Amino acid sequence: MQMITIQSDAIFQALADETRLRIIRLKIVMGDESCLCELVDSLLEPSYKLSRHLKILRQAGLLSSQKEGRWVYHRLVTKPAYLEQLYATVQALPDSNGIYHADLKRFRDRLRLREGGRCQVGIQSEAFKTEAG
Amino acid sequence: MQMITIQSDAIFQALADETRLRIIRLKIVMGDESCLCELVDSLLEPSYKLSRHLKILRQAGLLSSQKEGRWVYHRLVTKPAYLEQLYATVQALPDSNGIYHADLKRFRDRLRLREGGRCQVGIQSEAFKTEAG
DNA sequence: TGCATGGTTGCACTATAGTGCAAGTGTTAT
DNA sequence: ATAACACTTGCACTATAGTGCAACCATGCA
Predict the structure, then answer these.
(1) Which of A6, A56, B15, B72 meets the CB 3.0–4.6 Å disulfide criterion with A12?
(2) Which residue is nearest to nucleotide D6 (CA to C1')?
(3) Which nucleotide is nearest, taking the CA of residue A45 and each C1'?
């Protein structure tokens, strides 16, 4: 089920949050799809928080999500064309405090844990592991 | 007095509002500078509302403002370069309900009231005239 | 000086958005 | 079945954002 009328400001609304911008920037640079636990280990934010931000990005039409077993992979939506243009702009924004660079480094490290191009492990950062409850 | 650290998400925050997007879109297309009363007559929104949105756009670094007598002229900021890129993206967004087209028409009509390239009259739309208080 | 006028802002109100906790869903492995 | 785990979500709370009213400031003109 999709929205019929897409509000232009909803796209900017979606990017008007630092956590969501971090997610989008990561995915612009890396291009690849990624699951939630990889993002948790890259951004060092709790899974429930990222899960909700991912949902917002999905609803804004910037991400598409696909379930594979226990994992859910998210990827950037690139159509219509102005989205590509938007991503180029996002990529051109200054990394004022080096946060995107740090995210990217952790993300690259984390991707090495994949096997066959697919995530095989859960959250690695101790502080953000799901409490077995 | 300017902010030292510019938050990237502040730019998107600034565009995450329909009224502000309408202002920016008008100015992207028309290029020219414009005063508040011209915007009131173009967007048909009360002056106090637009005045506040203009302030937010100014603080986000998207507009610069200059006072000339009783009028304050606002123009788009075009540096750094990614702002031009951003405006191109904004211009590419769909005009889902024709609102930008309508704004633009009223704006063009309103510009005809200028003399010597400068606004000489106040708010023309009856409903939004400042009540003489 | 007085007043109309272009524009701004303090205040109160309301709506919305982000967060953490804890409980929940669905899938895989034992 | 049972447990572990990747991910999601209902609830309560807090912070922030948008709005309208009315008062205000600043400029130009009679």
Answers:
(1) B15
(2) A70
(3) C19
State the average pLDDT over residues A36-61: 96
Residue B83 lies in a domain: yes
- Encoded amino acid at A66, one letter: Q
Q: Is the CB of A81 under 7 A from strand D?
A: no
Give me the CA B128–C1' C5 separation in Å, rounded.
14
Distance (Å, whole) CA A25 – CA A101 = 10
> Residue B55 sits in a domain of what CATH number?
1.10.10.10
> Residues in chain A whose beta carbon is closer than 8 A to a beta carbon of chain B?
5-9, 11-13, 15-18, 20-21, 80-82, 85-86, 88-90, 92-94, 96-97
Point out the nucleotide closest to A35 (alpha carbon to C1′): D6
Q: What is the pLDDT of residue B133?
A: 27
Cα–Cα distance measured from residue B24 to residue B89, given in angstroms and rounded to the nearest whole number: 12
| CB of A13 nearer than 7 A to strand C | yes
Q: Is residue A132 part of a domain?
A: no
Tens-digit pLDDT profile for residues A62-75: 999 999 999 999 99
CA distance to A110, A125, A129, A133, per residue, from A122 (Å):
11, 9, 8, 16
- Domain range for residue A101? 17-114
Span B69-94, pLDDT tens digits: 999 999 999 999 999 999 999 999 99
Question: Per the structure, how many domains does chain A have?
Answer: 1
Residue A121 lies in a domain: no
